[in-house]
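haha ok so turns out i had the wrong file open the whole time. this is the CORRECT one, sorry everyone. sequence first:
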Amino acid sequence: MKVLKFLDENFERYVCIVLMSSMTLILAVQVFMRYVMRDSLSWSEELARYIFVWLIYIGISYGAKIMKHIKIEAALLLFPKCARSYVELLGDILFLAFALFVVYSSWGIVEKQLMLGQTSPAIQMPMWMLYSAPTVGFALTAIRQVQAIAYRVALIRAEG
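then structure:
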């Protein structure tokens, strides 16, 4: 149970830290190789780009976890105080629907990449690994949105 609690509280944050650190290190090595050693690595920029893509999608899940995804606070203030909780709940439900739509859509792309067997030019990584970033990221986001919806429903019940 402690492991599940730790993962629930920290998974996205630690994955983002590892991805950002890896990307920074790879790009620093590339800069060193290019300007100091006068030689360039053929794979570093491609790998850094793919890490960045994964960082973005895991970051979306982290934003959903801390309930800081995009919303317009000024528009929320236009509603009466008693309706704001319901508007936020509706926003979370719509975001959950969007996340599930992205998971479903991106899974079809991953399946096509698995069938095609395409690899990246420099590092020969199977492209399905890159194309699975939206699937994984938005699946995690959907889980976080379910948690957010449960939290908001509990708040509404406590207020009512």
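The chain has one domain: 2-159.
again sry for the mixup
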